[in-house]
Write a structure and sequence with these properties.
The chain is an all-beta fold and about 120 residues long. It is about 0% helix and about 50% strand.
Length: about 120
């Protein structure tokens, strides 16, 4: 079992930045690919970014490419999502997820564990 806890969400003006963290407990995070997803009101959960177990592979949704950066610190059992140049359309609940011993995937159903989410609100 892995428990994931996100933090770092909040209210920010358009153009601002936030850094989300995803702290894992229960098992070493280094065995898991880590993804970030988001869900806005009335919309389906969508892929944001993913990073492989050793951090060597990252993938991003086109909508965040160049603005968001995913990273991880396996020694701290924590993943991160640095979000810059935020836009109102980035407003959503952001979730981190962990996928055991698997390639970095964009598909939510492939993930084994999920956090409870953290709200990000970007005002115009």
């Amino acid at each position: 079992q892995v428990q994931l806890v996100e933090s770092g969400g909040g209210l920010v003006q358009a153009g601002g930045s936030l850094r989300l963290s995803c702290a894992a407990s229960g098992r070493t995070l280094s065995m898991y690919a880590m993804g970030w997803f988001r869900q806005a009101p009335g919309k389906e959960r969508e892929f944001v970014a993913v990073i492989s177990q050793n951090g060597g592979t990252t993938r991003y949704a086109d909508s965040v490419k160049g603005r968001f950066t995913i990273s991880r610190d396996n020694a701290k059992n924590t993943g991160y999502l640095q979000m810059n140049s935020l836009k109102p359309e980035d407003t959503a609940i952001y979730y981190c997820a962990a996928d055991f011993m698997a390639p970095a995937t964009l598909v939510p159903n492939e993930y084994d564990y999920w956090g409870q989410g953290t709200q990000v609100t970007v005002s115009s």
